[in-house]
Amino acid sequence: MRTVLITSVCAAALVVSACGRSGAPEGRDSAAPAEFANVDEARLVAADEHPGQWMSHGRTYSEQRFSPLTQINTENVSQLGLTWYADFDTRRGQESTPLVIDGVVYVTTAWSKVYAFDAKTGKELWKYDPKVPGEWAVNACCDVVNRGVAAWKGKLYLGALDGRLIAIDAKTGKPVWEVYTIDRDKPYTITGAPRVAKGKVIIGQGGSEFHMRGYVSAYDAETGEMLWRWYIVPGNPADGFENPQMEMAAKTWGGEWWKTGGGGAPWDGITYDPETNLVYVGTGNGAPWPADIRSPGGGDHLFLASIVALDVDTGEYRWHYQMTPNESWDYDNTQQITVADLVIDGKKRHVVMQASKNGFFYVLDAKTGELISAQNFVPVNWAKGIDMKTGRPIVNPESKYTTERGFVALPSFAGAHSWHPMSYSPITGLVYIPAVNSSYPFVAAYEDDNPMGQKLSISFAKSAEMLRDPKTLRVNEGILLAWDPVQQKEVWRVSHGQGRGGGTLATAGGLVFQGTGGGLQTEGLSVPMHFSAYRADDGTKLWSFAAQTGVLAGPVSYEVDGEQYIAVVAGHRQGGDYYSPNYSRLLVFKLGGTAELPPPIEVPPRRLDPPAPFGTTAQLTVGEEKYSRFCSTCHGVDAQSGGMFPDLRYSPTLHSQEAFDAIVLGGALTENGMVSFARAITPEEAQAIRAFVTQRANEAKQREAAATQAAAPAQQGHGASN
Ligand code: CA
Fold first, then answer.
1. Structural domain span for residue 582
2. 16 within some domain
3. Interhelix angle for 683-721 vs 617-626, to 10°?
4. Using CA atoms, how far apart are residues 563 and 273, in angstroms rounded to an integer?
């Protein structure tokens, strides 16, 4: 562990202009609000007494994402208009929830950059770039995203993609200290927002898809000193166990699981509850994915796919509830954990709630972890339900796929609900879930020797083969779902078709806000990309704004000088085109707002222009195998990209092996996150991959031509018959 005091000089000399701001008296600047991120324990615990602020990730420690503001409501939301926007200098996925404290918006972007804006005018106050090395992108399973900062006593805390935890002076945007929360020789990443409680910054990380061992740590907010760390899964028993829980957990594993790390990385949902003094940590999936390959003969694989409750002061274990024992389908339980007081069977219960990736909505006792209820909120086929006597899922034996027998799972590995924040309105008593109903054909594979990139031990090639079979179940729908957590039943829904709904915000004005973006791999799919408001009680759409890009992040609401604002981060290409312009920005709305986005930039439609097919059958087989293994997780199954990363069938480099190799083997695009794969791919294999993609490009071009031809004679025929 290394603590680097970067700018203690700067921190001691805030009034000196070299530190970013002019020579105004300390804490006062006529052009900017008086206070900067001035939050502490008392203010955060009593966040509901500050309805105009958004001081922590889910607004209050309970992470309900509910705004008590009522100025914007069902009666007048039709008059909501853009009042300012701010462009980001980075594209790729934008998933950040802004903080808004004392009139300043603090927001992060892809590549872990941070911006501060005047919340009323949109004036940029400062910008901070931690300079994450471009090659770190290859360690991220799911893009170089960041979900936001935490605030505490004049500092902001940023988890950078490359595993650094960085304290930033909220007034100047200058770093104060930074620590490495990871072993820098290992492919860990941070995409989640840190949480701060009782002077401790709590942070996890991603890495299960890369065979890492997950853990959660707490750091002193002032100094960056590590205070406690709790591992999610046991390490090698020969090295001794860190605590009694690890010894207990080891009994639920088989084989030599520590060689693949086990997984469990807690990459998103962490919630502190002042009432119980506990931190609830949502833990990740197993590594590799199929449980029988990960740990032959093992049992539940604790503490994967669970919520674990730790004492905030000591990091000691208090309770856990495992949602998916012997997890095999990438069913992380890292989703948002919301604390609420519900009346269940006539009794007030202090509960934690989670809409799990595995498709079930869980209500647990916040103090003890006792299962109160669980019900599936989308169709589920890996389990037939939850046995309330044992608290365990009734697992469908068919769902354990092998190398021989695939299983089309509901939900898919994308999950019934992932990082997209949900919200809970204590007024309607409903939870608003960005839900997904989707399927995926899992087939196991003993391929765990991938020298770089993800090591999942599933066969993308065999999945692609199953997907080509029209008989294979294929479900793909994004849904805004209003869920009653007491009755455990759906109250209303809005379908987004094959698109995806983003994070939600519930307000005391009777509204639910949500954006939409693209979905999974679907050729030619065009999804309307809007930010909309719905009635919280029945789902009627009342207002919508064309955002020019996908809006998937969690919206927030705040108040400055008596006016209520709604803010959301936009920017997501999925379902769009990788080569489309960068529309990543922060959008801010108020009643009567009259700002307008610049008109969309016209781009010529991309054209399939591959060279003639080449390569022997043997080469094409190798090409498909290597593509599936090394390229498909980013560039799409079967060479068909969902738009998040370039669709290689359209790449001009298909015309030149030299140009192709310069990127794939030479690392010409490392700065963009596309590193050299020379460690994993030989020049012969690179040629085979180019042959395979060229073949797929030619097939797509033929489909396009056939569709054009089919359209043309139909018109002619119609004319002739008249
Ligand atoms: Ca995962």
1. 41-591
2. no
3. 100
4. 30
Q: What is the pLDDT of residues 506-540, one digit of tens each?
A: 999 999 999 998 654 344 455 678 999 999 999 99
The answer to whether the pTM exceeds 0.85 is yes
Indicate whether 569 and 632 sit together in one domain: no
What confidence score (pLDDT) does residue 18 get? 31
Say if residue 369 is in the same domain as residue 410. Answer: yes
**Residue 26 burial by Cβ neighbours in a 10 Å radius (0-12, 13-18, 19+):** exposed
Instruction: State yes or no: pLDDT of 31 exceeds 70.
Output: no
Tens digits of per-residue pLDDT, 303-354?
999 999 999 999 999 999 999 999 999 999 999 999 999 999 999 999 999 9
532 and 674 in a common domain: no
67 - beta bridge partners? 507
Mean pLDDT rounded to a whole number for the chain? 89
Contact 577, 64 (CB under 8 A): no
* Same domain (yes/no): 164, 227: yes
CA 141 to centroid of ligand 1, rounded, Å:
8
Ligand 1 center from residue 145 Cα (angstroms): 15
How many structural domains is the chain composed of? 2
Q: Residue 80: inside a domain, yes or no? A: yes
CATH of the domain at 255: 2.140.10.10
In order of 80, 542, 543, 568, the CA distances from 513 in angstroms are: 12, 10, 9, 10
71, 591 Cβ separation under 8 angstroms:
yes
Q: Among the options 162, 292, 300, 330, which is catalytic?
A: 330
Position 672 scores a pLDDT of 76
- Picking from 230, 333, 214, 213, the residue whose alpha carbon sits closest to that of residue 279 is 230
Centre of ligand 1 to C-alpha 263, Å, is: 9
Residue 706: give its domain's CATH number. Answer: 1.10.760.10
- Say yes or no: 329 and 391 in one domain: yes
Residue 240 shares a structural domain with residue 122? yes
Residues with Cβ < 8 Å from 126, sequence gap 6 or more?
A: 20, 115, 116, 172, 173
My answer on whether 517 and 641 are in the same domain is: no
Q: Is residue 446 part of a domain?
A: yes
Q: Kind of pairing, strands 66-67 and 500-507?
A: parallel
Q: Let me know: does 436 contact 415? Beta carbons within 8 Å.
A: yes
Section 271-287 average pLDDT:
97
Same domain, residue pair 450 and 388: yes
Whole-angstrom Cα distance, residue 330 to residue 287? 9
By the 8 A CB rule, do 354 and 304 touch? no
Q: Establish whether 185 is a catalytic residue.
A: no
- The verdict on residue 20 lying in a domain is no
Quickly state the pLDDT bin for 83 (edges 50, 70, 90): very high
Whole-angstrom CA distances from 334 to 271, 286, 354, 418, 634 are 11, 12, 9, 8, 21
Ligand 1 centroid from CA 291, angstroms: 14
Closest CA to 334 of 392, 282, 286: 282
> CA nearest 601: which of 614, 582, 587?
582
Instruction: With cut-offs at 50, 70 and 90, classify the pLDDT of residue 294.
Output: very high
pLDDT of residue 93: 87
